[in-house]
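Researcher: Last one for today. Full complex below.
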Amino acid sequence: MSGSFFTLSRFALVFAAWLFGWWAITWVLNVNPTFLPPPTTVFERLATMATVSMGDGTLIVHILGSLKRFATGFALAVIIGIPLGFAMGYFKPINKLVTPIFEAIRPIPPIAWAPFAILWFGLNVGAQAFVILLAAMPPIIINAQLAIRMTDGRLIDAARVFGAGPLRVLAEVALPSSIPLVFTGLRIGVANGWMALIAAELVAGDGSSTGLGYLILQGQRTLNADLSIAAMIVIGVIGALLDVSLNRLNRYFQGWTAQT
Amino acid sequence: MAMEQDTGNDLSFQNLGMVYEARTGSVAALDGFSFDVRANEFITIVGPSGCGKSTLLQVTSGLQAPTSGKALLNGRSITGPSPDKAMVFQSFSLFPWKPVKQNIEFGLRVSGMSRAERDELVDYYIGVTGLTGFENHYPRQLSGGMQQRVAIARALAMRPRVLLMDEPFAALDAMNRTLMQEELVRIWSEHKPTVLFITHSVEEAVYMADKVLVMTKRPGRLKCTIDINAEIGCAHWRTQPIDEVLLVPKFQELRHRVWEEVRAEIEVNA
Amino acid sequence: MSRRMSKTGRDRLETAIYATISVVSVLVFWHVFSVHMLKNEFILPSPMQVIGGLERLTLGYLGGNLLYHTGSSLLIVITGYLIGLGIGIPLGIMMAWHEPVNRIIGPVVAVLRPIPTPAWIPLAILWFGIGMSGKVFVIILSAMVPCIFNSFTAIRETPRELLDAARTMGAGKRTLLFEVAIPSGLPTIVAGMRIALGNAWATIVAAELVAASAGLGFLILAGYRNFEAPVMAAGIISIAIVGLIMNFAFQWFESRITPWRESEER
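Model: Here's the assembly. Have a good evening.
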């Protein structure tokens, strides 16, 4: 316990030293704050962001706006990706039909679809959700498919010995045992989707005044680097929180299957 | 390539102790272990799991320093790993990215031997261990038995004064294991380095050893020593095939004796 | 033996048939939908119109032909990628091998890692302008982070027994690093390089969609602005093809640099 407190405080100390270095550079070299503001300015900005309205509102409005787009795209990725992955894992013909299309689309970075997405689904939420969907879905499909295919053959044999048919094997053996791998896919999907969200907000955010990506872009356009950096910090913190909480959940699921 | 023929003590353990600091408290792995090994002796060590056998090898190899007592090689305190103490690990520990030949050559190259000398030695040990034709295979392309041959060749090529073997055949199937036991004796007798050989197999211990050491349960102490050579009184049976030796009454008697000693330790534990 | 051969042969034929069916039916559906139902070239061009768009690009579009724009993107990606590798891999290795380096650099890496690279694009524009250097900067970041992370993990997870084995044969600290830890971690390091390449490719497209005057991402954006959907689609297809080629090149590189892993699958 005291050990982890020790490492944490050392971590904080070293980080503070880096911040001091950043501050010292801006001060000694007298750097133009529109170019690189000192950390103090960034912290001030972080503090005022919560109360001062920018674009469509205060910080919380932008966070919720981004999260809404993310949630829309990610939910679609789960709704399509998991059943599709399961079907591909369980039925060979479906796998052989879908794989060529899947492999042809995969080398295209999701953000490249943004302009088409705008044409198809409209600027903002529609286009951005589509890009997030494209970014989050591949790992979800791959892992769902893998999870079904890697079902322990001995478990299937055991179920069949007791007279289970193919559907019962799927429902009572393959699906439950696939949960940890599926969850891993969801985790990668969240990371990919979060990264795509920011790109999508930068590319397909024209006309919108909401979202963390908008704040970054706004900082650049109005020559307020402190705003851009503050928004990046918020994005990083939310991304890290998502990652940590999913890691926790993941540990829970791994333990859950170890018992079965 | 002749080994220097020493007489007298080669390895000497004096009141060796090892205590590990763990979260749950300290664990004593070895306690007051004392023993002298003469040059060219083949020593096997048996004892219950967790009795500090592996720790003893780690200390002898110089990978770990004991927390008390001393380990001496040729009268000098062991301070760290060196090429005169070669080790063969249970999991083979071959470098997966190096083909067989380069694996065997590794230690020689590190110690700065010239290429011509290296080639000669490596070729010799590839021949002795029956690896001819597999020089350019990667370890993963070989069976477990073949991999362990590479590990043995790699250790022997160093022409070590002491050969340390930590359950080298535990990962092999029973049939390969028997073959490798006979092979090892044959290879060993070419130059007779001093051997410390850890095993869980009483049969293996009695078959190969000059002396069998039985250790107590944790913290490991020396329980007793069985001098196989003295017991046999004539030529050692390890030059004969195992299945024949198994029929020798004296072998059966010694195996029984060693097993009784080990069993007592395991049952105390339970 | 021959029965097994014929079985895999049949399997391969089956896969090919399914692949043909699926690709052809997608193309037919796409064609019928765009030509006979949607009838809006601007929203969804037909396959033939996309081929026309590709043709237009090869003849030259906004400053140069397809090769010019591909080259422009690739130049930035490769420059940034190599610099990112050159910094990230040694840094990750040093952080894993020397604890003081880890203690000093670690906190910064840990804090920067969760920030998605595209988020740096506006700042890069602010610092370097919309030219090449700003994009190279972002590509460096996108490639560096996975390299640091994977190299660090690779070295830290060197099997202890391999290090022990090398030490018993007299290996010193340098030998342990260069002849044991690094080769042992090479597959993980190479995996990091693969992730880095994907990141770099996605990032350049994003950066060119935000602000650029050349490149494949720029082509898509220009097509969008000029109401030329066939050009947009052609741009996407070009990106896919270059991406595929890069994947194959990387696979080749991977099999060359870690040949011992191929033997695993045999």
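Chain C has a mean pLDDT of 89. The first helix of chain C runs from residue 2 to 38.
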